[in-house]
Amino acid sequence: MTVVLKQKKWLILAVAFALVFPFLIPNNYYLHMMTISFIWMIAVYGLNLFAGYTGYLSLAHAGFFAIGAYTLAILTVKAGLHFWLSFLLSCLISCLIGLIIGLVALRTKEHFFAIYTLCVGYIIYLVIDKWDSLTGGVRGFIGIPVPANIGPISFQTPVSQYYLVLFFLLLVIFVMHRIIYSLAGRTYTAIRNSEDLALAIGISTMKNKLTSFVLSVFFTSLAGALYASFIRFLGPDISYISVMFDLLTYLLVGGIGTMAGPVVGTLLITFLSQQLQFLQDYRMLIFGPVLTLLVIFYPQGIVGGVIRWRARQAEKSSNRQAQTAHSANHFVVARHSGNEKQVKEG
After folding, report:
1. Phi and psi torsions of 256, nearest 5°
2. Sorted alphabetically, which keywords does the UniProt record give (predicted)?
């Protein structure tokens, strides 16, 4: 009960800080960086659902991020559809593509699945890069509109866009929490722990893996659509393999298979990268060894390491209390025996 209350306290403090951040630090640069971080967090949550909780590493999620972004851009600029209709369609179209890819990809397992999705992600990058008439190719895609007004609420300013992205991030976290602690979430965890055992007890592993994959694609494409409306310019680089490994780095550093991992890892790496911009050419030489050491000594990332440490502390505290109670009981029994002996002798 105490742990739950502490978790709620930290959650309330984090949300409160996010809400007052534009007033605490009225700096457009930091506001921009925080908004971008929120967008990447949504994408990492999508990756975490499938890799962290279902146990399958997809290396195509940067491609789905780009599909969500480019679909929104094409529907708003070239097709002339309303922004929010385009926003919804971009996520649905990405899910449809993810469903088709998942039906084939999920017939493979483990490293074969990772290699297959890596190839899919690179194919998506090539399509975006070479299809000039649709995507603009290497010239990029410009003129993407900002989110349309919702009644009296306008999204023309950086602060209003910050709160819009924050709203979607909190919504994604809420939905993720409901999924993970539902029967479906426990099913995904069972598949991650032992797919053969899950299949033996009657779980439809293919159906659940496909559902988890499509949901993860939905979250990632949602992030891509938000990215397109915020940056308002797209290039094929957002679907490149390096972006995929950035997402994976955020997840591994924060804590794969944890609820707070995407937030911690994304914030830490994003702001650390900005502070080390003068070492941009040597970024991988720095992050590579650090990430390797982290995977070796903290395979569940920073948040996973904290959870394990707290569990060990709670276990030690429980053992000490048990020993104290045992010693007290032993003392009481010994004293009672002594009193009885004195009575008999008297």
Report:
1. -70, 135
2. Cell membrane, Membrane, Transmembrane, Transmembrane helix
The overall average pLDDT reported for the chain is: 86
Q: Are residues 127 and 196 in the same domain?
A: yes
For position 294, what pLDDT does the model report? Answer: 77
> Cβ(123)–Cβ(97) under 8 Å?
no
pLDDT tens digits, one per residue of 26-41: 888 889 999 999 999 9
Question: Is 201 inside any structural domain?
Answer: yes
pTM of the predicted model, to two decimals? 0.88
C-beta separation of 125 from 240 below 8 A: yes
User: What percent helix, strand, coil does the chain show, rounded to 5?
Assistant: 80, 0, 15
Angle at which helix 205-231 crosses helix 83-105, to 10 degrees, equals: 140
Q: How many domains does the chain have?
A: 2
**For the chain, how long is the longest CA-to-CA vector?**
108
| Rounded-to-integer distance, Cα 336 and Cα 341, Å | 9
233 torsion bin: left (phi>0), alpha (psi -120 to 50), beta (else): beta
> Quick one: average pLDDT of 123-149?
90
